[in-house]
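*Target chain*
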Amino acid sequence: MTHDPFAVLGVPAMSDAATLGAARRRLARELHPDLGGDAAAMQAVNVAYDEALRLLAEPPAEPAPVVEPRTEPQSRTHRRGPARNVQHDNPSFTIDVLPAEAFEALLIVTSWIGEVLVDEPPYMLEVFLHEPAPCWCRLDLVPDAGATTISLTVVAVEEDGAGIVPPPDIDAVRDTWVAGLNEPLW
């Protein structure tokens, strides 16, 4: 059986990122464990959302080439496909405060390294990062025994019609967030 992330989110196949985000928020209001929902169902929604974003970022499939019979032996080398434009780091890092405080700290760091696109306090933040390089970044905050575990998703962006600019390495993005969180706030 094929898993269809768009069906899990209840949206048409290949819906845009805004539609996916709206569907995830709608489902989170019903399924989030902090609101009386089911943790496993909410996790399935988060996984479907990540998968749907990844599918949107992939280039469209090209039709299969017509294969002509060959008389000479075929090469054993394989061509690598296009680089992935979505990177996940799950979990990425932990902050030793509850999600509400962690969310506020992340908002402050966002003002230094990017701009807020979507904020759903205290569990999700979508940001356009300027540092370490332009990219879209989602931070999912999960309560973790008096602390907060942060998972990152980084997606490449299209810049001024120049094509897709690959996202920075996920480790560089994580290190930028951690460095910002460790800066004094005064």
Q: What stands out?
A: The domain at 86-181 is CATH 3.30.310.80 (TATA-Binding Protein). Residues 116 and 179 are 18 Å apart (CA to CA). The chain has two domains: 5-57, 86-181. Strands lie at 86-95, 114-120, 124-129, 135-144, 147-155, 157-158, 164-165.
